[in-house]
Amino acid sequence: MIRTENLSRKFGSERGIFDVNLEVPEGAIYGFVGHNGAGKTTTIKILCGLLKPESGKAWIGDIEVTPSNIPKIKRKIGYMPDITGVYEQMSVWEFMDFYGAAFKIPPAERKKRITEALELANASYMTDYQMTSLSRGMRQKVALAKTIIHNPEVLILDEPAGGLDPNARIEMRQTIANLRTLGKTILLSSHILPELASICDRVGIISKGKLLAQGTVKEISGMINENIKLVVTVDSDAKTAASLLATTEGIGKTEVLDANQITAEYSGSRESLSAVLRNLIMNGVAVRYFDEAEEDLENVYMNIVKDGKK
To answer: How far apart are CA 221 and CA 217, in angstroms?
Structure first.
C-alpha cells in the first residue's frame, strides 16, 4: 500500500534521506523506527506530498506521489504530524467541522463523520471543550479524529505518542490497533521502541537517512548473528539439560527457570542451531519445545544501528 523506490532528499552532504525503499503491506501497521533526525519525518512529508524528493519515487496504493496527483493522495491518506496546529478559539466540534469542510464533506454527512471520528479516537466527551483548554493527550486524540474524518485508506502518524503520559500512550496504542481492524494501513513513526513492538506487524529501522532493515522483528533479528536467546522445554531434568547445553559450542549463559524450562544465550549463526538441538537429543534429553525467545525491539534496533555504523 505504501512503497518507495530509491527515495532521496538531501539537506547538505550528510543530512536527509538516501535511497530509501519502504514496503508497507495493505492492512498492516508498519513501525518506522529511528532516533530524532534519522529521516523519518522527511520520508513522511514526501509520502504526503509536502516535500519533493530529489530522486526516487513513491506510491500510495497505485497512485504515484507526484505534484499532479497530490489531490488524489490527500484523499487517500490521513496525516497526523508530530505537532498539530489548532485554532485555540474554536471548540472541538468547530475544529472538526472546519476540517470536514476542508475535505468538502457535505454538511448533512459531516455531522455523522465528526461523531464517528471522535468516537474512534475516544474523544466524544470533548465535543464542547475549547481547544485552548485541552491537555497534550486530549489534543492528540482530537488530532487523530481530524486525521480520520474523511475515512482515508492509509494513516501516516508521526510520533503520535510523543509527550504523552503512560496511560495516554497505552490508550493511543489501543486506538491505533482498533483502526487496523477497520482495514486501515498504518505507517507509525516513533523513537519510543516499546510503543511499536506491541502493535506493529512490520518495522523499518532508519539511521542517518538510510533504511538499514525492514521486516518483522523476528526477520530483522535473523540478520544479526549474536545475542540470540533460546527457550528450551524438556520432559527430563532441566538442570541436566542445562549442563549439557553449557558445553555446546556457541552457548553462553544458561538459566534454569523451573523443573522443565531453560533459557540460554547463543552467539552462533542460526544455521547452526539445529546442531544445538541435535546434541541435546543425541544425549538423551527429551525436548518438548526449542525456539528463540521473542526478540526485544530495542535490542534489535541497537544491533542493527551498530552494524550500520561499521
So the answer is: 6
190-220 burial string, b = 16+ CB within 10 Å, else e? bbebebbbebbbbbbbbbbbebbbbbebeeb
Grid coordinates belonging to 281? 537429543
Chain segment 226-238, per-residue pLDDT in tens: 567 889 999 978 9
- The reply to whether 228-294 shares the fold of 2-215 is no
Judged on CB neighbours under 10 Å (0-12, 13-18, 19+), 109 is: exposed
Predicted pLDDT at 249: 85
Assigned fold of 228-294: Alpha-Beta Plaits (3.30.70)
Taking the C-alpha atoms of residue 217 and residue 201, their distance in angstroms, rounded to an integer, is 8
Class of the domain covering 2-215: alpha beta
* pTM summary value: 0.75
Interval 288-302: pLDDT, tens: 998 877 666 666 777
Eight-class DSSP state of 130: B
Q: What are the pLDDT digits (tens) for 68-117?
A: 999 999 999 999 998 888 788 899 999 999 999 999 999 989 999 999 99
Nearest to 159 by CA among 146, 175, 172, 174: 172
The residue extents of the domains of the chain are: 2-215, 228-294
Residue 67 burial (C-beta neighbours within 10 Å; 0-12, 13-18, 19+): exposed
Grade residue 67 by pLDDT with cuts at 50, 70 and 90: very high
